[in-house]
Amino acid sequence: MLEIDDAAKRAFEQVIGKLRSVRRSARISQAALSHHIGVLGKTISEWENLRLDPTLVNLTRWSDALGWCLVVIGPDGKVLLPEPLWLLPGETRDSFGLRRLAGPLKSRRQDLPSSQKGLGRLVGVSGSSISYWELVRIPPRSIAQFVWAQKLGCSIALWPNELSGTGPYSRYGPVPRIESGG
Fold first, then answer.
1. Domain region containing 35
2. Per-residue DSSP letter, 153
3. Is the dihedral of CA 3, 141, 115, 132 positive or negative?
4. What would the pLDDT profile of 123-176 be if each residue is shown by its tens digit?
5. Is residue 180 part of a domain?
6. Is the Cβ–Cβ distance between 55 and 143 less than 8 Å?
């Protein structure tokens, strides 16, 4: 069973809180954002109030729509980048968002060195799950991504979207702003 400790939960909640803050500061309604990233109307509220966890794909879409991206921060505090740092032929933006997280964690595991099975025991999943996550075949639950990073001495954080070379609002164009509330 996935081993979610307080540090991983706190890191996940900080990312959610930052996304909420960015949305509010940009004066973007939850309804406009949910429509923009293709989720049901009240979904953003459910995520922001921690009543429902977004999938990892939706978390990367949410970040991207607000001009941010999820990245892996290494033990030295530096952003760990995947190779290559651009879309591969035929790769979707969703797959690239997942690879941007999985690639550096796979490299970190191999540098330690740690087996997929050994890391799986630490995370509370099977070695096969780690393999699928590293190959971006089946993404982990969003909170599991934070646990996976943490067990490798890394963290997941938000970073300005320019890191990926795609610029803010890259996927869909700008989200419509509102005049009040949200």
1. 6-160
2. T
3. positive
4. 999 999 999 999 999 999 999 999 999 999 999 999 988 644 443 334 444 444
5. no
6. no
